[in-house]
Amino acid sequence: MPVAKAPVWQVLEPRNRELGPEGQKAKNLEHWRYARDGNEVVWLILDRSGESANTLSEAVISELDTVLGEIEGSGARGLVIRSAKPGGFAAGADIRDFRGADDAGQIEPRMRQAHAVIDRLARLKMPTVAVIHGHCLGGGLELALACRYRLAISGTSFGFPEILLGLHPGLGGTFRLTELIDPVEAMTMMLTGKNVHARKAKALGLVDAVIEERHVANAVEAAVAGRLDQDRPGWKARALGLAPARRMAARRMRSEAEKRAPRRHYPAPYQLIDLWEEHGGDRDQMQKGEIRSFSKLLAGETAQNLIRVFFLREGLRANAKGDSGIERVHVIGAGTMGGDIAAWCAARGLKVSLTDLDPKALAKAIGRASAFFDKKVHSSIERRDALDRLMPDFDGAGVAAADLVIEAVAERADVKKKVYQSILPRMKKDAILATNTSSIPLEALREGLSAADRLVGLHFFNPVTRMELVEIVSHDKAAAKTLKRASAFCGKISRLPAPVKSAPGFLVNRALMPYLVEAFLMIEEGTAKEDIDRAAERFGMPMGPVELADTVGLDICLEVARMLGERLEGQVPPVPAWLARHVEAGETGRKAGKGLYAYDDKGKPRKQSPKGENDEARLDRMADRLVLPILNTLVRCLREGVVRDEETADAAMIFGTGFAPFRGGPLHYARQRGIDDVRAALERLQDKHGERFAPDAGWNDLK
């Protein structure tokens, strides 16, 4: 008897969602359909035409207005809104409608029209019920908030991710959510963009009940009949209706926001806080202010750049389509990278065997995986299942059953090749052999390999559980099928595959290393490391190069810098001698508790107060010296064909290194700043610091 792949409670669930009356003719528009059931309740089903997920385009909202006009005064007892899409209720507004919007004066009237439709739904005299499954985000949540009742199917998640696009909710969310639940909790949802799951949503009062699919019809009838109790905002909400209390709360919110998103780069959190502080509790003024603020943000550079980043992500996701045929993964090397790759794959539903010559390293990796599952996997049963899928493999026997073998051993070609010779005779004939090398060209690794067509680079980034990018490194002997399956595997484990050609350092590390080495040279010249990091962070980097080098590991930085220096003559300068001394002394960075910084017991660097002047022009010059080599290297990689286009290069640097997202990517930043201006700045740095800053010939191709 075959073993079911899904948990038993999912197998026993009805296969079809409750979508209203059966056997009755529904009224159909392009994106909506509706019919009245025997209890005189209208079931309105959102099923956006030609799309796999529901989004609220202008056409969808316009049709909703038409439907509401037909339902008003129809004598219906109630209205239910559901999604026909299996993935969820709605994923928010259609981002495609936002792209290129640069005139707030033209945006505002469109937003007022959309608000009028949602307000019309909220004013219906009959009970309105949103039945929600899967994801309910952004505009989808705002649609649900306009209903009197919200019923969540177990497993539903709710959120306002607009802040990640440089925006805040714009379809009534700012005032409806802060009226419905604890305003501080509401503001936290909107300011962080983090999702809340169904049970927490119920505890917050965001939904009225959490139910299983089989109970939908009964729950709807209870809501329409007025038998569903609703929580009301408590004393805290009433207190925050007073301006002095809002001012105090707003002050704390601004302080927290500044830690994550500096005002000079990310205006949206501060405009949202200002809006609530000034108008909280006054629905009419809050709504007018929301429309003005949202329109201004949408037309701004930050939001348009972050919308570009959204589409860069979608471009990488498109690489991951298809079936990889990979169900079992064998990882060789239980260090930080190998262990975390294994844990992540197990968390995403794959069966994983993890092996290492050192039993202690293997035990440590399993312990780290268990802690990760405890923190990030939502239910105890799912945590148990994830841990069951991750098998410590002391003998390396798992290689024989694996569809994919990932090698994550020491960054030395001779060590890696020895591993390949050992495992290839035991691998399945169609299994993929992947290396997690961060810099070694695959041409060097495939020498003498009998199955070079099945060798591919799968370069994950540290920390694996947070960094989304995986470089898919090709070489001229790799089979197209191998590359396609490797990319699809990334999609299976919710990672973003960026195709690059084999070259020293590939793309991301090759572009990042000049940034790190330049910081080392600045320290050599006497610049305080805290000032160097401050300059990079002022530019918008999530972490300065000195702290980043400590995070990556000074030993790894030294090895990669030496390799690139040898293979890319003149492009990467020699690293200062003191870096090797740090490594020899075991001061390799955060993992050792000491590197260029010393670290506390929480892994935070102990930084001194800035020693340099707080001179913005000086910091901007330092940032140019650090960042422009990244741009110059990416242009060189484009010219050499290491990466296929600007979009892939920008996406790789954002999702692989965290390059200032609000700038839309390094090459996009170069275009916005002006190609001639960037080239002139490089020439000035060349005159002052040497030929490593010489503008690449590829800049001529970007005109």
TrEMBL record:
Transmembrane portions of the chain: none
Reaction equations catalysed: a (3S)-3-hydroxyacyl-CoA + NAD(+) = a 3-oxoacyl-CoA + NADH + H(+)
Annotated stretches, region: Disordered: 594-618
E.C. number: 4.2.1.17
Domain 3-hydroxyacyl-CoA dehydrogenase C-terminal stretches: 505-599
Full protein name: enoyl-CoA hydratase
Family the UniProt entry places it in: Belongs to the 3-hydroxyacyl-CoA dehydrogenase family.
InterPro entries referenced in this protein's UniProt entry, alphabetically: 3-OHacyl-CoA_DH_CS (IPR006180), 3-OHacyl-CoA_DH_NAD-bd (IPR006176), 3HC_DH_C (IPR006108), 6-PGluconate_DH-like_C_sf (IPR008927), 6PGD_dom2 (IPR013328), ClpP/crotonase-like_dom_sf (IPR029045), Enoyl-CoA_hydra/iso (IPR001753), FA_oxidation_alpha_subunit (IPR050136)
PANTHER family to which the protein is assigned, alphabetical: TRIFUNCTIONAL ENZYME SUBUNIT ALPHA, TRIFUNCTIONAL ENZYME SUBUNIT ALPHA, MITOCHONDRIAL
SUPFAM superfamilies registered for this protein in UniProt: 6-phosphogluconate dehydrogenase C-terminal domain-like, ClpP/crotonase, NAD(P)-binding Rossmann-fold domains
Annotated ranges, domain 3-hydroxyacyl-CoA dehydrogenase NAD binding: 329-501
Keywords, sorted A to Z: Fatty acid metabolism, Lipid degradation, Lipid metabolism, Lyase, Multifunctional enzyme, NAD, Oxidoreductase
